[in-house]
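Work through what follows:
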Amino acid sequence: FMIIVVAEGAMSKEDRKLSKKEYKERLSQYMYPSVSYKLAAEIEELTGREVRVTVPGHTQRGGAPDAYDRVFASRLGSEAGKLICDRKYGYMVAYKNREIIKIPLKEVAGKLKLVQPDASIIEQARMLGISFGDEQE
């Protein structure tokens, strides 16, 4: 499989010249909600393989992506693209100590990262109504 990261929000020079109202009208006429979906459809048509689009903001926080999400996705995508250009395969990109780093897949693939049941992240998730399938409320 392959992962392609697309930073959303880029505008063409033509679109940038439009007023907000004109730009919204143009967007409403597009067949796809964003460039990611258009790219996914084109890749699917060319390869005959299923393509899935995931918006980082939706999986991370359940909301629309904000400026932080867009910059974060751009940084991850840039580093992933650099690895491909450098023909360095078998790595994943990660965020550690405010830096984007590469990690060999052999160090992370097939390994579980466990969270202690009394960890604050679990308590906070429960406060938000997330269920872990146990009896606690």
Remarks:
- Strands lie at 91-96, 99-104.
- The first strand starts at residue 91 and ends at 96.
- Residues 13-104 form one domain.
- Residues 82 and 88 are 8 Å apart (CA to CA).
